[in-house]
TrEMBL record:
This is DUF2236 domain-containing protein. It comes from Micromonospora musae. It comes from the Bacteria. The lineage of its organism: Bacteria, Bacillati, Actinomycetota, Actinomycetes, Micromonosporales. Residues 16-251 form the ER-bound oxygenase mpaB/mpaB'/Rubber oxygenase catalytic domain.
Length: 287
C-alpha cells in the first residue's frame, strides 16, 4: 500500500537528512555549472532542450523529479524514472568535436549528470554546515545508486563512496572543456530572464532590483562552490567570490532558510513522505 511505502530511502536514510536542507537550491545551480563543462553532455542539452525559452519551467520539472525520487513512494519514483528513460531514449545530438551523432542516454553521459548532481547536493549541504560523518558521506553516495538505476545506469558502475567520486572526477577531467556552449550556458545561468510574475513589474516600469541582485548572489555563490579545477576552467566568467566567502555566504543562507516556516521550505512531496513516516511510527508529523 502507498500509505505504508516510504520510497527508495526513508526517514532513517542519509538522503532524507541531506535533502531536508533548503539550501540545496544553490546545489542545483552548482551542478548545472559543472555539467556544462562536459562538451558531449552540454551538446545533448543544447540541441534537445528548451532551457533558454523555458528556463524556470525546466528548473521546476527537474526539482520535481528529484523530489519524487527522494520523497515519493516507490511506485512514484519508478514511474518518474520510466518517463525520463522514455524521453532520453529517443533523443540524439551531434558531438561538437567529431561530428558524430550520439544518444543522450549513453551511460557515460548519464553517469556524469548523476555524479555531478549528487556530489553538488552533498558538498553544498556540508559546506553550509550540515554535520555528516565520513560513514554518512559514503552512505549517501551508496544510497544514491538507487536513484542512478532509475535513469538506466548499472549501480555497480556508479561511484559509491567519496573516494570513488574523487577518482571519477580525476578520470573524467581530461574530457572537460570550456566550449562556446558552456560559456554561453554559464552566462545564461548567471543572469537568466526573470519568471513572468517577477518580470511583469519591470515591463511596467517598476523597480525590481532586489530579486535580480539576490539571484546574482546565489549564482556567484554556486560558482564559487565549484571544485577549484572547475573554477579555473570558468576563469573570468565567475564573480569575484572566493571559496571562503562562498562558505560564509552559504552558511548564512542556510540559517535564513531554516528560520522560515516549515511549510514554506518543504514541498508537498516531502510533507506527504513525512506524514506517511509519522503514521507508521505512530507519531504526528511535525509542521
Amino acid at each position: 500500500m502507498d500509505s505504508d511505502d516510504l520510497g527508495l530511502f526513508g526517514p532513517g536514510s542519509v538522503t532524507w537528512k541531506v535533502h531536508a536542507e533548503p539550501v540545496l537550491i544553490v546545489a542545483g545551480l552548482r551542478a548545472l555549472y559543472l555539467q556544462a563543462l562536459h562538451p558531449r553532455a552540454m551538446a545533448g542539452v543544447a540541441q534537445n532542450s528548451d532551457y533558454r525559452t523555458d528556463a524556470w519551467g525546466r528548473l521546476v520539472r527537474t526539482a520535481t523529479y528529484v523530489a519524487t525520487t527522494v520523497y515519493g513512494t516507490t511506485a512514484q519514483a519508478e514511474a518518474a524514472g520510466a518517463r525520463l528513460r522514455r524521453l532520453h531514449e529517443r533523443l540524439r545530438a551531434t558531438d561538437p568535436v567529431s561530428g558524430e551523432q550520439f544518444r543522450v542516454d549513453e551511460p557515460e553521459l548519464l553517469r556524469w549528470v548523476h555524479v555531478t548532481e549528487v556530489e553538488s547536493f552533498l558538498g553544498t549541504a556540508r559546506r553550509a554546515g550540515l554535520p555528516l560523518t565520513p560513514a554518512e558521506v559514503d552512505g549517501y553516495y551508496r544510497e544514491q545508486r538507487r536513484a542512478a538505476t532509475l535513469v538506466g545506469l548499472d549501480p555497480e558502475t556508479v561511484p559509491g563512496t567519496a573516494a570513488e567520486v574523487g577518482e571519477y572526477y580525476r578520470r573524467v577531467r581530461p574530457e572537460l572543456r570550456m566550449t562556446r556552449e558552456a560559456a554561453e550556458t554559464a552566462v545564461f545561468l548567471t543572469a537568466p530572464p526573470l519568471p513572468w510574475k517577477l518580470s511583469l513589474p519591470l515591463r511596467l516600469g517598476l523597480n525590481l532590483g532586489p530579486p535580480r541582485w539576490a539571484y546574482l548572489g546565489v549564482a556567484g555563490t554556486a560558482l564559487a562552490l565549484l571544485p577549484a579545477w572547475a573554477r579555473r576552467m570558468y576563469g573570468g566568467l565567475g564573480l569575484p567570490t572566493t571559496a571562503l566567502s562562498a562558505d560564509v555566504t552559504v552558511r548564512g543562507l542556510r540559517l535564513v532558510l531554516a528560520a522560515l516556516p516549515r511549510n514554506w521550505r518543504e514541498g508537498p512531496l516531502q510533507q506527504a513522505a513525512k506524514e506517511r513516516a509519522a503514521r507508521l511510527a505512530g507519531a504526528p508529523a511535525r509542521r
